[in-house]
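User: Can you recover a sequence for this backbone? Please restate the input before giving your answer.

Assistant: Of course. Working from this structure:
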């Protein structure tokens, strides 16, 4: 695929899945062996666990907006920086609804083959989000 095709795939993925609230439509965008990496130390997510993750976000923040700030596209994939905003109206990661809004940055890299996302690295700044929601952060053991 061309860089422009890959950029269009990214935009459609964000609009349909995240903003449009259709997590189950992910199968249209990802390869059967899709892997979503949130951290080098955490297990990767497959499409089913990514769907559940998105559902959790959408339940807690039904008004999510994602604005693409920068996109670097090539024939093998895309890298992007975006701003995510929303209002906390449902439980999220054990944090009861606060009614507060948040605005965070996210940076992702997506590798694309045959019109499907095969691998994805990066994600939103969850620490900044938790702080904006007023959550108390305690280091784990």
């Amino acid at each position: 695929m061309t860089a422009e095709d890959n950029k269009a795939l990214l935009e459609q993925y964000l609009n349909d899945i995240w903003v449009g609230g259709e997590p189950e439509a992910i199968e249209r965008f990802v390869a059967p062996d899709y892997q979503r990496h949130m951290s080098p130390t955490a297990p990767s997510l497959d499409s089913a666990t990514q769907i559940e993750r998105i559902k959790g976000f959408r339940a807690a923040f039904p008004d999510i907006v994602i604005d693409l700030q920068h996109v670097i596209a090539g024939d093998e994939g895309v890298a992007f920086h975006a701003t995510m905003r929303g209002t906390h109206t449902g439980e999220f990661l054990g944090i009861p609804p606060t009614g507060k809004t948040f605005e965070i940055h996210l940076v992702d890299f997506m590798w694309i083959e045959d019109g499907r996302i095969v691998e994805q690295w990066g994600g939103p700044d969850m620490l900044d989000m938790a702080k904006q929601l007023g959550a108390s952060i305690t280091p784990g053991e």
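That completes the design. The chain has one domain: 3-132.
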